[in-house]
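Reviewers of the previous submission asked for a worked example of the structure-prediction workflow described in the proposal, so we include one complete record here. The input consisted solely of the amino acid sequence. No template or homolog information was supplied to the procedure at any stage.
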Amino acid sequence: MRIWNTTNGSTIIQVLKGRSNSYIIVNERSATLIDTGKKSAFKQLSRNIQSNNINLKDISTLILTHTHYDHCQSAKQIKCISNCSIIVSHSAAKSIKTGYSKLPKGTTLPTKIISGLGEIIGKQKFGYDPFEPDTLVKGVYEFSIGRGKISIIETSGHSPDSISIIVDNEIAIVGDAMFGIFRNSICPPFSDDIPQMVESWGKLLQTNCKLFLPGHGKEINRDRLEKQYFRHQ
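From that input alone, the workflow returned the following structure tokens.
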């Protein structure tokens, strides 16, 4: 698992990779989990967290970058174990009550076909257990974690409820606002609004972050994001 550190003492640990990435932010005794992955990955997520000497019961906050099934299927289970506060976008309020967030549109012909098929299958495969959020983010939301600071901003485009987590204004965890899988592109293969997504890239560039940790794939540096942003202008 990859580990990143900020100058304010925050440690970001990748605790799930593969189908989806999950991260945990630790500063002093505070632990904040970002995304949960699919329900089938819960045991692996738990093992990876505990291998870093963190008990699931010690997770104080769970932040969901968005509520597609592959990022939030274990949210209710983690809430039951840790009684953590759950933070999501205000745009997710209706979908989390039903336990299903509509899949995004494809950005290529193959992914458009996949998206269409996924919509037909719907909640049966792509749903999750409904849960109660504690904080609905609209605009900017900030809080302290130990000696560190977390800022949450709206970065819609991939989905209306996409948010990004800015850690100490140095590293951003961006969910599916960008992908770290493809060699020549950071564009996600699925997105509801590409112009809005590019605008969200601009918002992320307004921070001082040098690294961007996506929901899928490897870290993206600022130079790569800048090139992709200006290429789409």
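The radius of gyration is 16 Å. We consider this example representative of the routine output the project will generate in years two and three.
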